[in-house]
């Protein structure tokens, strides 16, 4: 197992997570965000990170199909969460004045 | 003041990035810590989610109190090598005259079976997984095992014969056959007995030593006669490996020259990547490494315990059946394919054991849902090239009947057809173990597999776990691509 590669990839993953968290927090300046939106955003981000972590781990153990399918399933679920959340958040009347 | 604004003022984008990266790094470090480089822990792992402990194996499986001890002569290997198991033609164009197909496995490396007078067709064609390079890999891996023969008999274990005294007082056996045995038992035990403060301390020391000597798993089971073979195979050969004419019967009663109290059960992980190529000589090399390790570690542990002043008999597959002992020692559970399934490596393990009269704390059997998952999964049965594995849903289903003498009777388990299995080995000119390779429990120790394995413990999600294992593409046995890839990958 290539540990250096694994650490580097997870470092990139950390960076992506940070950007995700930062972008989500920025939304709070523009919109009123209810608890269920927070839940959707948090689930979406966790699923996205999980899907990338899954894919990387699978590639490292040469399970390319597992990587692809994992990305598709967990990443897809993340996208669903994000799209519902953005729809709900950007509803009329949710903008902060 | 808006709290978010103050938050974003205090933490800049760059800071957030740094923090996030550090957090992710910390999480990653724990997830992927190079476990092999760290000394193996002796303390037992904390039991993971949904693991139950039991008093004895009888609390888990229905075992007939009148169960007869199994005869090693009836084991699939003995029947294949020493008996005439023959071959069941599997496909219409299989050669029905091929006698004792299993001997193809024995002669695979040389490429010619002098009994059937057939050449190894896979080797001739240099098929991926059966090429000279692949077979050489297996030959090297089996080297130590070949010197000891632990796959079948306790060759070094009790056949001291004329022995060479060593500096530490032990005897090095130089003959394979028990002739005038000055000290029946494996090696001369030390006169002064070391006293441990408690059986718990003894168990700690023995487990620590076993891990140092190369075991991946160690557990301790009570000695029970019911798991001893009724008769065992031994090799009536002289030092040069020539058969001793006056001893033509290779089976004898199992006897100890001391009263064993417990059995130290050792588990050895077999290489995951090599096992992905099954059924091939590359996968066989991983098995062979397991056999060599079985002998290496059990010999060392036996030497150590005898130096402490206690008796031992160590064995690979010999002396008694390993799976119930391993279950009783808390190493894992039985499965549809009949092999031990461990939490750590699934069925990808080999087992060795050391019988001893040392007072040592016993372990408890544990279950983590294997039987229940096997009832749903059946992946091994679907993948088995000889259809040898039972497809009965439950062990109690009427169609789950013993197939032949190879099936030990009186124990609640799935009955598989070992004759069919060995026939495929013969056809393949090598071992198979596809069942082990495809099993959803056969995964490496990585965080995402632990997550997936925990799904098999949730009753409503077991079918999903099996389906996902398939969708994710795990366990593609028989793939020539994987066999070729084994040598091409640079790790
Ligand atoms: S070793 Fe191969 S042939 Fe034998 S039971 Fe397993 S899968 Fe079937
Ligand atoms: S493949 Fe499935 S049915 Fe077979 S032993 Fe493994 S878990 Fe059980």
Structural features, described:
The complex is a heterodimer of chains A (97) and B (491). Chain A is built from 3 helices and no strands. With 97 residues, chain A is an all-alpha fold. The radius of gyration of chain A is 16 Å and the shape is elongated. Helices cover 35% and strands 10% of the residues of chain B. Chain B has 491 residues and is of the alpha+beta class. Chain B is globular and about 60 Å long. Chain B has a 4-stranded antiparallel sheet, sandwiched between helices. In chain B, strands 1-14 form a two-stranded antiparallel sheet. In chain B, strands 2-3 form a two-stranded antiparallel ribbon. The longest helix of chain B has 27 residues, at 281-307. Chain B has one domain (48-486). In chain B, strand 4 and strand 5 form a beta hairpin. In chain B, helix 6 (132-148) runs parallel beside helix 10 (281-307). Bound molecules: iron/sulfur cluster (2 copies). The site of one iron/sulfur cluster has 12 residues of chain B, from helix 12 and helix 13. The site of one iron/sulfur cluster (SF4) has 11 residues of chain B, from helix 14 and helix 15.
């Amino acid at each position: 197992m290539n540990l250096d590669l694994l650490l580097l990839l997870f470092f990139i993953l950390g960076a992506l997570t940070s950007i995700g968290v930062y972008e989500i927090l920025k939304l709070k300046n523009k919109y009123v965000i209810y608890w269920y939106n927070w839940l959707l955003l948090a689930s979406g981000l966790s699923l996205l990170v999980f899907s990338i972590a899954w894919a990387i781990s699978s590639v490292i153990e040469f399970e390319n199909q597992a990587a692809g399918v994992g990305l598709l399933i967990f990443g897809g679920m993340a996208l669903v969460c994000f799209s519902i959340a953005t729809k709900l958040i950007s509803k009329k009347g949710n903008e902060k004045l | 003041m808006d709290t978010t604004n103050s938050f974003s003022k205090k933490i800049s984008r760059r800071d957030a990035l740094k923090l996030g990266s550090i957090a992710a790094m910390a999480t990653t470090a724990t997830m992927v810590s190079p476990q092999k480089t760290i000394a193996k822990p002796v303390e037992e792992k904390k039991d993971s989610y949904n693991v139950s402990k039991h008093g004895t194996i009888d609390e888990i499986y229905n075992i007939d109190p009148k169960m007869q001890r199994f005869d090693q002569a009836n084991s699939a290997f003995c029947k294949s090598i020493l008996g005439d198991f023959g071959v069941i033609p599997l496909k219409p164009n299989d050669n029905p005259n091929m006698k004792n197909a299993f001997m193809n496995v024995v002669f695979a490396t040389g490429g010619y079976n002098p009994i059937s007078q057939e050449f190894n067709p896979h080797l001739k064609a240099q098929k991926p997984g059966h090429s000279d390079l692949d077979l050489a890999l297996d030959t090297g891996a089996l080297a130590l095992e070949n010197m000891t023969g632990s796959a079948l008999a306790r060759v070094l274990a009790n056949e001291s014969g004329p022995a060479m005294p060593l500096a530490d007082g032990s005897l090095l056996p130089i003959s394979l056959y028990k002739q005038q045995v000055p000290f029946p038992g494996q090696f001369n035990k030390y006169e002064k007995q070391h006293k441990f403060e408690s059986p718990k301390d003894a168990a700690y020391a023995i487990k620590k030593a076993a891990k140092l000597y190369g075991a991946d798993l160690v557990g301790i089971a009570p000695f029970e006669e019911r798991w001893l073979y009724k008769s065992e195979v031994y090799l009536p050969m002289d030092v040069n490996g020539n058969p001793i004419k006056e001893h033509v019967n290779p089976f004898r009663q199992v006897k100890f020259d001391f009263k064993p109290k417990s059995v130290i059960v050792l588990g050895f992980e077999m290489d995951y990547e090599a096992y992905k190529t099954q059924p091939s000589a590359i996968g066989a090399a991983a098995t062979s490494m397991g056999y060599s390790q079985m002998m290496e570690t059990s010999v060392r542990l036996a030497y150590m315990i005898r130096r402490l002043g206690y008796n031992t008999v160590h064995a690979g597959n010999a002396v008694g059946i390993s799976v119930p002992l391993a279950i009783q020692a808390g190493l894992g559970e039985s499965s549809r394919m009949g092999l031990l399934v461990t939490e750590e490596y699934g069925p990808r393990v080999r087992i060795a054991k050391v019988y001893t009269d040392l007072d040592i704390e016993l372990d408890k059997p544990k279950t983590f849902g294997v039987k229940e998952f096997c009832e749903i999964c059946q992946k091994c049965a679907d993948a088995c090239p000889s259809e040898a594995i039972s497809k009965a849903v439950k062990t109690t289903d009427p169609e789950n009947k013993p197939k032949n003498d190879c099936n030990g009777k009186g124990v609640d388990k799935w009955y598989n057809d070992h004759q069919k299995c060995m026939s495929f080995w013969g056809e393949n000119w090598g071992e198979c173990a596809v069942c082990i390779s495809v099993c959803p429990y056969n995964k490496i120790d990585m965080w995402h597999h632990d997550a997936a394995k925990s799904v098999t413990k949730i009753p409503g999600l077991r079918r999903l776990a099996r389906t996902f294992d398939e969708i994710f593409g795990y366990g593609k046995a028989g793939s020539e691509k994987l066999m070729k890839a084994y040598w091409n990958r640079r790790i």
